[in-house]
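Hey,

Quick one before I head out. I ran the complex with 1-deoxynojirimycin overnight. Inputs first:
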Amino acid sequence: MVRFKEPWWKRSVVYQIYPRSFMDSNGDGIGDLQGIISKLDYLKKLGVDVIWLSPIYDSPNDDNGYDIRDYRAIMNEFGTMDDFEQLIDEAKQRGIRIVMDLVVNHTSDEHHWFVHSRSSKDSKYRDYYIWRDGNEGDPPNNWGSIFSGSAWEKDKATDSFYLHLFSKKQPDLNWEHEPLRKEIFDLMKYWLDKGIGGFRMDVINFISKEDQLPDGEIHLGQLYGDGSPYFINGPKIHTYLQEMNEKVLQHYDVVTVGEMPGASTEDAQIFTNPGNQEVNMIFTFEHMNLDSGPYEKWDVQPLDLVKLKRNLEKWQHALHHVGWNSLYWNNHDQPRIVSRFGNDEVYRELSAKMLAICLHLLQGTPYIYQGEELGMTNVRFDDIHEYRDIETLNMYKEKRQQGIAHDKIMSGIYAKGRDNARTPMQWTSDGGFTTGTPWIRMNHNTSRINADQALADPSSIFYTYQKLIRLRKEFDIITYGSFQLLMPDHPNLFVYKRQTEDEEWLIVTNFSKQTEKMKWDEIDVQNKNGKIMIANYETHQLDGDIMEVRPYEAFVLSFRKEMAN
Ligand code: NOJ
């Protein structure tokens, strides 16, 4: 077995690209690999050292590539295998690794495994998927799909039902079946041998389902049963991940991050403990669910900062010296953070920088989602037909059928819809993403918010991110220091400390548009003569017993510890 020293990914910063919306090189309105290549220097300038690509495999795009038809081919709209190899190569020349999205909880229904599987009960591929007989014509259980409707689809050819936790064009794979696991391990090697830097694993803690697939509880206001207790962190999840590690991952020096809805800190301690050889880190959803009702994300609740702080504190403590955290505010499934936990009007710049500073000073590997470094905002399309996301469109249809008013549904979409993250990257004042018609409408504010403008302004959000990345590379305390939450019950200030033996850093952030007061006494730092490491206001007044923390202000002070004598 090959062993590696201090993993490189602990000091890395990852940039996520949603290829469809990043940069179009050929004017068809769809982003592509050559588009990404043309922006590598931009990413190099930002300073990231890993790019995670949302799926680029051949796909009918029911769920924009998260429905894979051929794991070994590149999606036509995105380019060719030569383009991909060029991307790996050119990224490498700039010290950047490419991480692929591994979507193996399900495939597309157009994948040849499923085409064969559905054709006959005797097909060699039958057991690659989860088939059950119906219940007197009804689905085998009451589970709802995450994209609305039942999680089961009846298939005429064999008069049986297949499970699809997502859309009916995304049938779930049957990990119980050993030949299927082998196929997956082989395809992982196929990409790793091309020199990729690792995998982000899509809903990887859904792959082991409980045998009996029992009915789930039907929560208040829901049409279907909640199957999640029976497919999240199922009985064989650790066995499967360890097998994947033994057969594939441990033979390569790569990073792995498992997307794991519903995973707790206790689960994460097992998944990310290096001794268990499963994954390096996971994406938790707990902090992203704090502004949702108990049963669905569309039920938008105001953020309670105290809960957010307590939650991040729990994750920081649980994984310190045990496993490893990922740090994120945004991805292709989440609304834009500046519109969500910040303020996308007068305080857009300040609050975007504050959120960046708050997140990037935590322990873990930070992920930046395309456009986050520009402070891109949510969108509001009046017409539902302008939306493209299957989750949003199915939900809209189902809720309209239930008689829920258009405006009420739209307010959920404005706040939480995934297309908020998927509008084209804003490169120039007139867009700059494509010379054609973009596959989804551009946010109207590109005239104000765009990369050209950000690069030309030394005080832009872009340069705050650049500086945060540089600080991480330079100061060990960011990677290794312990974490301590201060003033835990303050409703608007998020203040914490990082510490090593000889240094401590104080991170002060204000999540509100009010000026807040903070007493030095309250925060127990060694002395007041700290050095500003990064901040989002230009001037600072740190003297006196009380500090005034201005609207959305953020700053970081470093102190050398006084040696006890
Ligand atoms: C999680 C992905 O992030 C999301 O975009 C996708 O729709 C589902 N998994 C299904 O693959």
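The two ends are 47 Å apart (CA to CA).

Talk tomorrow,
K.
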